[in-house]
């Protein structure tokens, strides 16, 4: 029998296929096992709880469907987030999985995500003399407004599409960056 | 926020489930254990909440309306205070906070991701009625987003912040959003 990918990844790829026709909650381990062609027990061995499956599925979707464009400047950051929100709009079922996975009680890796690190690095360059406390407040806020959670909340709670969500995101970024005193900005 | 009227039995089920989530986590709680904790028959739980998703949505709404209830703000400019207090409440019940956060992000299946939206709109329209539609929407969206358990989860998980830092940073962000409309307040004709 040929195995093009490892079992753990094969399970995630099949879960993603099933996600096109039903919600994550409606994907049973039984159905998933049938889709992959393995036993239900093998899935339990890889993903002992649905929370584990959700977290792993979200990571896999992030990497394969929503890779974050690299950014260094604030305007690159805005463009990268816009691109992501537009990608979320084209694959909403996948984006909801990301929003949900970022809300659950962490299962295994509690490492900050790549975008968190990238935002912190961006602020280090953009505002090198900013005090530590304000930098953290700003970084946390930018991170939270660039999240799948923000997209999901505005899509479900406010019926907005990616264009409107990008606009709301830009305005939030404007208000937060306006808190930075001018002299803390690096010389252009 | 409004919660549909609950029967005594339903309230007992939701309280029992919330208690068990704090002890065991949300994945491992069977209907049998919930029924035993609530002192009722398992089939009564099924009759009220046919699926686990039904049960989870009802429980999250109940937690938000009781354990995480916030004092009503009388001004849009008081919202940062409510956010600060809400973050402290989430921090005291981390397991329940995660359950509420995840439930709000379920997409279409009956979850209400912005329960406080109507209240924010009422306050904003009373005090700052002259905003254009896009700006009004952006202010409401930003404050709804910040005034939610997602803030607590994200700040904790991504930045390792503790209770004080989260409460401070969330309230600070809300003040930043309000800075954009501070000079747009219309004097009220019927001030109490």
TrEMBL record, chain A:
Keywords of this protein's UniProt record, alphabetized? DNA-binding
Q: Which Gene3D superfamilies match?
A: Tetracycline Repressor, domain 2 (1.10.357.10)
Keyword Transport present in the record's keywords: the answer is: no
Location of the DNA-binding region in this protein: 28-47
InterPro entries attached to this UniProt entry: Homeodomain-like_sf, HTH_TetR
SUPFAM superfamilies on file: Homeodomain-like (SSF46689)
- The answer to whether keyword Heme applies is no
Identify the residues that the record assigns to the HTH tetR-type domain, covering every copy. 5-65
Q: What is this protein called?
A: TetR/AcrR family transcriptional regulator
Which organism is this protein's natural source? Paractinoplanes ovalisporus
Q: What is the lineage of its organism?
A: Bacteria, Bacillati, Actinomycetota, Actinomycetes, Micromonosporales
TrEMBL record, chain B:
HTH tetR-type domain sequence ranges: 7-67
- Alphabetical UniProt keywords: DNA-binding
Gene3D superfamilies named among the record's database cross-references? Tetracycline Repressor, domain 2
Lineage, broadest ranks? Bacteria, Bacillati, Actinomycetota, Actinomycetes, Micromonosporales
Residue ranges: DNA binding: 30-49
Name of the protein this chain belongs to: TetR/AcrR family transcriptional regulator
Segments crossing the lipid bilayer: none
InterPro entries in the cross-refs: Homeodomain-like_sf, HTH_TetR
The organism encoding this protein is: Paractinoplanes ovalisporus
Query: Does the keyword Chaperone belong to this entry?
Result: no
